[in-house]
Design goal:
alpha/beta, about 190 residues, binds adenosine-5'-diphosphate, single chain
Length: about 190
């Protein structure tokens, strides 16, 4: 069993790369962004609650997000391992995740941050917004707000996982296959 966290600023390519990684290593991909978007599409209570935060580029409150994440892990109890994408995003979420996994005699084995310069990210996200229909992708103010959320809340996770010796950085600049290869190298190093 191997459990991996992918993190990186919005637009860094987490979702794209997660698709390759989950296939290769047979992991269950858990994307909180995708889960929220599904709930919004189906207009569930959770979706209605999350919608206003997401549309503005704010983080959804921890208690909501953590509850949803646990439910998703529970419903995949015979997974070979998990690939978390977009979660945790706050130190409280990291602590909750560690406590929760510990109770199940599991742990996070590796966290990888995909790093890309802000300017390139903004360009990528605005481009994605042309076809994705995502409101949070179409407005530079909302995009900047998501970066602020990352800098003020998520960036501390680096320290948190460094202290546990589980933190790696992968350069997210270059074409998709190049980045995928860099990620595979880190994971192969872990499982060899
Ligand atoms: P991106 O990484 O491009 O911002 P995501 O699809 O991962 O896209 O997330 C989109 C939005 O969903 C976030 O801006 C936030 O509002 C909400 N969200 C996703 N994951 C979390 C989380 N772990 N905690 C709080 N909010 C989250």
């Amino acid at each position: 069993m191997v459990n991996i966290v992918l993190f990186g600023k919005p637009g860094s390519g987490k979702g794209t790369q997660a698709e390759f990684i989950k296939e290769k290593y047979k992991l269950v991909h858990v994307s909180t962004g995708d889960l929220f978007r599904q709930n919004i599409k189906n207009q569930t209570d959770l979706g209605k609650l999350a919608q206003k935060y997401m549309n503005n580029g704010d983080l959804v409150p921890d208690n909501v997000t953590i509850g949803m994440l646990k439910a998703e892990v529970e419903s995949n109890s015979n997974a070979n391992g998990f690939l978390f994408d977009g979660f945790p995003r706050t130190v409280d979420q990291s602590i909750s995740l560690d406590n929760y996994l510990e109770k199940k005699k599991l742990k996070i084995d590796l966290t990888i941050a995909i790093e890309v310069e802000d300017e390139i990210l903004i360009e990528r996200i605005l481009n994605r917004g042309l076809t994705s229909g995502r409101k949070d992708d179409q407005d530079e103010i909302k995009i900047k707000n998501r970066f602020d959320e990352y800098n003020s809340k998520t960036s501390f996770l680096e320290e948190y996982y460094k202290n546990q010796n589980k933190f790696k950085i992968v350069d997210g600049f270059g074409n998709i296959e190049e980045v995928t290869k860099r990620l595979y190298n880190e994971i192969d190093e872990l499982i060899k």
